[in-house]
Amino acid sequence: MVIDKEMKPKISVNIIARNEEKKIVDCLISARLLADEIVLVDMESTDRTAKIGQKYADKIYSYPKVGYVEPARKFGIEKCHGDWVFILDADERITPKLALEIKGKIKSADSSIGAFAVPRANYNFGVWLKHGGWWPDYQVRLIRKSSFIDWPKKIHSFPKVKGEIINLEEPFNHFAIDSIEQMMERTIRYSQREAELLKQAGVRSNLLIMVRKMLGEFYRRGIKMRGFLDGVPGAIQVIYQTYSVFITMARLWEYQRQNEK
Hints:
By secondary structure, this protein is α/β, with parallel strands linked by helices. It is built from seven helices and 13 strands. Helix 1 (24-31) packs parallel to helix 2 (49-56) and helix 5 runs parallel beside helix 7.
């Protein structure tokens, strides 16, 4: 049976990046495995990210630097013209198997399906983290454009869509952490935003809350979800997550103290 190419659902891949010249090429190449259209949103990069993107992306837009990607999600999706939009970050990669599964699924997707959740394989220091709550780490990344409602600006938020969300089987790869320096930089950047959002929500922090949050995160990631089974990278991740929780709550306490002066 011959299928008219023009009748196939068109797929856009939306990538949001800032200062990712070392990773953006591999990201864009992997996106082409799936995309009929690649839309790159550059968040005021000061390196060659946007220039490199011109060689691979079909469209490039600029968005103000805000420190994390969620505020630009809705903007990027609205700039896409595909029937379906796959959301991909610069440190993530689409695999040939995933691309094949997606193309097959959307051909037969019922109109009641608004999005697909895709398992994400997280790699730290080149090691796939299979414990600690990091697998299968489903992310709602393939969205029917007509079903998209909104993407909250909160860090690590999920999109709001109309219709059913179905899980896929094949994962996409997330090369999250390459160095301790990168982990520390991310903690500084993310903890500031998270603490600001908690302050706006009226959340309070004190020593008891800090300790309770830290112990809770350590137990959840390390013991209950067995994060230490992933060896040294897993142990580093458990301790890092515990530290990140502490820094966020410490920043919140600092904001409270500044307001009380």
